[in-house]
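Practice record 12: protein with 3,4-dihydroxybenzoic acid.
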Amino acid sequence: MRTQVGIVGAGPAGLMLSHLLHLRGIESVVIDKRSRENIEKTIKAGILEHGTVELMQQTGLGDRLKREGAEHHGIHLRFNGRNHRIDLSGLTGGKTVTVYAQHEVLIDLIARRLKDDGQLLFDVDDVSVEDLTGTSPAIRFTDADGNNQVLDCDFVAGCDGSRTYTRFLIPEGEVRTDFFHQYPFAWFGILAEAPPSSDELIYSRHERGFALISTRSPTIQRLYFQCDPADSVDNWSDDRIWTELHARVDGDDASISDGRIFQKDILHFRSLVVEPMQYGRLYLAGDAAHTVPPTGAKGMNLAIADVVVLSRALDAFYTSRATAALDAYTDTVLRRVWRAQQFSYWMTSLLHRFPDENDFGLRRQVAELQGVTGTTAGAAYVAENYVGLPLA
Ligand code: DHB
């Protein structure tokens, strides 16, 4: 087999890259170890930045998003028992975010790639990549029928998520440096059949720990609360979960609506940035190159921003053999990646209970929240970053 861009990983980065390349007349093949069903069913975050929504609409992926996504004009930061609204659209010249789950984006992308005769190979195994430093790298793998395949390409895109193989093709030390930060907590996430607890998301800071009220639809709610990273979903009965959420959120202007919980998961927190994001003919995008903590829901949006830059750089190469944009890929993308990394880290530190925090720290945190929500400059900083920095 031969293609122009071989893409390892059919997540948001890989599928969107394939879609954007197709629109520019560039061929790609996407391979993934997972099944299509697994990819279309795995629950992840659900907030699309303004630019992500615009990109989907401009590239023919907007129909179901428009019908089923819910546009949000504000969020609440909750502390001292009260909501403090951040007017996202008022502070950003009309920008908003949209609640639309990541797996729905993937369902739309897969459907569209297949409609456009895109080559998506699921259930592959034994993936390896060769000759990255030459001009014709090859991806070897076993296909779903167990046949050995070689995919010759001009470029390889490493879009294989946080459990990446492609990241490690960049030699550590002499070329690659990983910048890593660990957090002393995790999130417990649930999906519940219940009415919405709030019209807008609530990020709640509480002495018992952080809680987040999000939503998926008028009948399905997504809620999270800070937990110990060593905890297990088996320790949490439905009753215990609702009691904890009520304790962390309920008050005069907010209250949680209970319902049947049908999914429980624990999300681990890490910050990671890999530099550089390229090596020879390999370009990393999305979680293969960087992971953010979930606060602020930047992960998928960052992956999409990466491949906007990468698709343009590849287009410049195929149009005029220009390599300047490809050479500059890491530098271009990393500026935005580090800004999002900083914002996710900062929102995390603003709202979570750190295990070793003393009373000084707790009062300081409330004062910081008052400064952020009580000044136009503070609220604008949250709003601009939350709706998303310009894509590229
Ligand atoms: C969701 C996840 C987040 O990390 C966040 O900050 C907001 C919403 C969600 O899954 O709905």
